[in-house]
Amino acid sequence: MFPTKVRALGVGLPHALVTATFGGLTEPIALALKEGGHEVVFFWYVTACVALTFLATVFVREPSRTSLLETAPSLDQRPAAHKI
């Protein structure tokens, strides 16, 4: 899915951001909802996160089946940039 030069960054950065966002905020959200007497809302939050993960799994294409790298034009075939 990502070119070799940026593969680690392309995979690692989104994973780290999602982990920090949802993993880091889960406890404060749960505690705030518990203190406010809305424990049930936390379960809906977790359910929404699971639903988003399911939708992403269903709709994201498998890169091994449709590789964009194989159909991308090589550097020799790309039009030259215009100089100003």
Descriptive keywords:
single chain, 64% helix, 0% strand, mainly alpha, 84 residues, 3 helices
Write up what this structure looks like.
There is one protein chain. It is elongated and about 60 Å long. The longest helix is centred in the N-terminal third of the chain and has 29 residues, at 7-35. With 84 residues, it is mostly helical. The chain has 3 helices and no strands.
Mean pLDDT: 79
The secondary-structure class comes to mainly alpha
Ends distance: 33 Å
Low-confidence stretches: none
Q: How many helical elements?
A: 3
Beta-strand content bin = under 5%
- Rounded to an integer in angstroms, the radius of gyration calculated over CA atoms is 20 Å
Give the helix proportion (percent range): 55-70%
Number of strands: 0
Order of helices and strands: HHH
Largest sheet: none
**Large-scale geometry:** elongated
